[in-house]
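Predict the 3D structure for this chain.
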Amino acid sequence: MEISDKRVGELMAAGRAAVRFNAPLGGDRARQLVESIVAHGATSVVDLGCGHGELASLVAAAAPAIGVVGIDRDADQIAAAQASSQASFDVGDIAAWQTPADTIVCVGATHAFGGTVDAISTLAPRARRQLIVADAAWMGEPDDWCRATFGELPTVDDVADTAAQIGFASLDLSTSALDEWDEFEQGFIAGIRSVGGDDAQYFADLRSEEYARYRGVLGFAWLIGTR
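Done. Predicted structure below.
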């Protein structure tokens, strides 16, 4: 079935709107991230590629004294974030962000810096206390279809090796669990189906079939580096 680029964009937007975070990030991990940011005494936090601002909003709600700024190029998502949060949000190119902050967060948006490894190298000097970077990485051996679909990605070990060279006092590296992936993908697919129409059902089925192919192979690596 042929689906126009415009329609694909609409269906993907519906998928994003249906999930709490646009990443395989469960509620427990989100709480741990917020607790870590607050515990390390951040007074300024920037979330690069914040989407509709859920994680930035959680930080702002947990510690209103922290100055939290979310940046994303998607004006619609930023508008949604501004309507329901104590954090500040701006539409912008995250690759152009130069201002240091106590904590810098970049989840699922490292492509703006050339990939996860480059994002860590670029953002680490600007993070005064803590750097949180998370994005796709190979957990298993990808087949040709996975490589063609997702391109060249680092392994989880590649992410760890890069971070070790930056000079953080402590490093915490983990990967999203399969239940986090399942919750994310099921919610995203349900959001697509909710649009209605044969094309939406076809697109949702395609996404479901693709997830079955990369489940357990495509991972999501979480790095927390602390000064």
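Residues 42-182+208-226 form a domain with the Rossmann fold fold (CATH 3.40.50.150).
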